[in-house]
Amino acid sequence: MLRERGPEVALARELTPGQKRVTPASVVADLAILAWFVFSLFPLVWMVLLALKNDADQTSTYFRFSPTTANFGTVLSQRGQDLTSVDFGQAMLTSVLNCAGAVLVSLVVGIPAAYAAGRWKFKGSEDLMFQMLSFRFAPELMVIVPLFVIYNTLGVFDTKLGMVWVLQLVTMPLVVWILRSYFQDLSPELEQAALLDGYTRRRAFLTVALPLVRPGIAAAALLAFIFAWNNYLFPLILTDSAATTVTVAVTKYLGGGGQAYYNLTAAAALLGALPPLVLALTIQRYLVRGLSFGAVKA
Amino acid sequence: MATTVGGRTPPQQSSPGRAGGAGVPRVPAWRRKLRPYLLSVPAVALIIGILYAFFYGVYYTVLNYAATNPNPSFVGFENYASVLGDALFWRSAGVTLLYAVAATGIETVLGVAIALLLNRSTLIGKTFERLLILPLMIAPVIAGVIWKLMFNPQFGVLNHVFGLGSTFDWLSKDRALWSTILVDVWIYTPFVAILVLAGIRSLPKEPFEASDVDGASWFYMFRRLMLPMMWPYILVAVIFRFMDCLKVFDAVFVLTAGGPGVTTTTLQIGAFEDSITNLNYSRGSTYMFLLWIIVFITARYLVSVLGKAQRRAAGAGA
Fold first, then answer.
1. Would you call A263 an interface residue with chain B, using a CB distance cutoff of 8 Å?
2. I need a labelling partner for B107 at 20 to 30 A (CA). Which of A13, B5, B9, B30 fits?
3. ipTM of the predicted structure?
4. For residues A184 and A164, what is the distance between their CA atoms, to the nearest angstrom?
5. Residue A167 near residue A99 (C-beta atoms within 8 A)
6. Does any domain span residue B18?
7. Which range of residues forms the domain containing residue A208?
8. How far does A144 lie from chain B, in Å, by closest CA?
């Protein structure tokens, strides 16, 4: 299913006759795609450059700077905390723990459900899946406002436990929908063969089905991690200072004492953006399928 | 149970155990029927937990619950009347709709164009294709922070590069909405592009070869063959984008916080102001419930459109 190179070579030949020759059309096309990448990558390059500028050069729009990595140290240090009232390093650690916890819970709860929905047609199965998907599209505040009140009475406001719970809204639909599509692709005959050989259902699942969808599990888990990491609205409202996450911590640089330090803001943004970027590049092959909830299989 | 997930070890033939003559384990029919339900129990429990909060929120809409009024009483449809009679609600509904239509429209056109261009597999395309998804993977709120720095009239890079001087304000009353849409386009166009590109690459090549032999022009092939066949892929992207736009919050909130005035107050930002800034939980929940209804109806409609398109594409591809 994971075809990387398809018929596009042939297709390209059909659609752009004589693409090896340089024609005015091909030049325009090259320039157009180049223009997009300039637009797309410029803000990122600019963020990196700004993050490397020292305090004297940060407000200069000219390319005149002596690169320094001190900003990253400052963001993670006591001074960064003094400027924004948030311990950035602590926030990053919290984000890692929140997201890892949320993904783990989603996998434990979601894999059996995804297997059931992918393997058998049973009453209510489609309702269950649709309910999951509706979480993906529901406006977050619809749940956050009551949770804000409930969390305060339960005492899980501003805790990692509370975040792991609410992040299920992000991670669970992803995990279940992606893995269902992987289990659906798996031929039931493989497990049937194992059953015929005397395996129990459970062993057939654990030793035949599960290892075969391992790439799917890894992709779903990492993608869920990325989206949980990138979430902003949940930690913004449901945490205060003890369980602040990295997305909230980055925005703190736009106000208060950090306001005038564009280089520090960029450094914080870069630190917050790096983990998802690295993870995304490692699971690139599986991204299309993941982002479309299994609807588009690349 | 210690799982040895490592390998596809050949199953032992020698241990039929309780299994019958054929080697098929005899599991009672009722247990087999029950199995998918049992496997789904944890997920259902989790869903119920979340729905509990959801219905609590719906319950708020008929109360007058606020931080200043911790012992709420039943007020019927007063909140709905108040919200629906509020010009600000309709204003933010209009802003949200304009945002969603404009952003989705621009992203779809650009995304399809980028997919077609990348499909040519030229050197430039191959070099940069891996980097296409980078803006998409950054947290939208961090993207908002980056663009906010770039939009800065004094020190931001955009005014400098375009020679706009230090008085041009990207986030002024007239431009703020379009600037936030620009950021949305920057983040999410790759989403459309990679979905459509995957679609193009999975198309069968025979129809294209056949029409090439027949001497069809590039545009004719695009219009009559490619577009109908990749329509379902485009629609999946459009549905995801449109629904996400309806509840847009992160990047817009960081860029403008709904301002200046109420020019970029989308529905979810309006609800945020009501329920979190003003601590009027009932009014905020009403805002959100109305948005939820809109999203739900849109979802049902778009999914039915998708079904039709898929059937049509199946016909076109055959």
1. no
2. A13
3. 0.87
4. 28
5. yes
6. no
7. 82-291
8. 8
Model confidence at A259: pLDDT above 80: no
Residue A4 reports pLDDT greater than 50: no
Question: B63 has which bridge partners?
Answer: B74
Residue A236 lies in a domain: yes
Q: Does any domain span residue A5?
A: no
Among B residues 135-174, those touching chain A with beta carbons less than 8 Å apart: 135-143, 145-150, 152, 154-157, 160
* pLDDT confidence band for B14 (50 / 70 / 90): very low
d(CA A195, CA A52): 60
Tens-digit pLDDT profile for residues A159-204: 999 999 999 999 999 999 999 989 988 888 888 888 888 888 888 8
Task: Find all residues with CB under 8 Å of A70, minimum gap 6, and list them.
Answer: A54
φ, ψ for residue B68, nearest 5 deg: -80, -10
Tokens for A168? Answer: 């299920």
**pTM recorded for the entire structure:** 0.87
The reported pLDDT for the residue numbered B317 is: 46
Dihedral through CA B12, CA B17, CA B20, CA B26, nearest 10?
-100
Nearest to B149 among A11, A262, A279 (CB): A262
Q: Is the peptide bond before B10 cis (omega within 30 degrees of 0)?
A: no
Q: Tell me if B282 is assigned to some domain.
A: yes
Q: Distance between CA A156 and CA B158 in Å, rounded?
A: 43
How many beta-carbon contacts under 8 Å exist across A and B? 346
Whether residue B153 has pLDDT greater than 90: no
Hey, is A273 helix, strand or coil? Answer: helix
Considering its fold, how many domains does chain B have in total?
A: 1
CATH classification of the domain holding A97: 1.10.3720.10
Q: Residue B237 belongs to a domain with what CATH number?
A: 1.10.3720.10
Domain assignment of residue B232, yes or no: yes
With beta carbons less than 8 A apart as the criterion, state whether B195 and A297 touch. Answer: no
B271 lies in some domain: yes
Q: What pLDDT, on a 0 to 100 scale, did the predictor assign at position B110?
A: 96
The more confidently predicted of residues A203 and A230 is A230
- CB-CB neighbors (< 8 A) of B145 in chain A: 250-251, 253-254, 265, 269
Categorize the per-residue pLDDT at B189 as very low, low, confident or very high, splitting at 50, 70 and 90. Answer: very high
Q: How far is A283 from chain B (nearest CA, A)?
A: 11
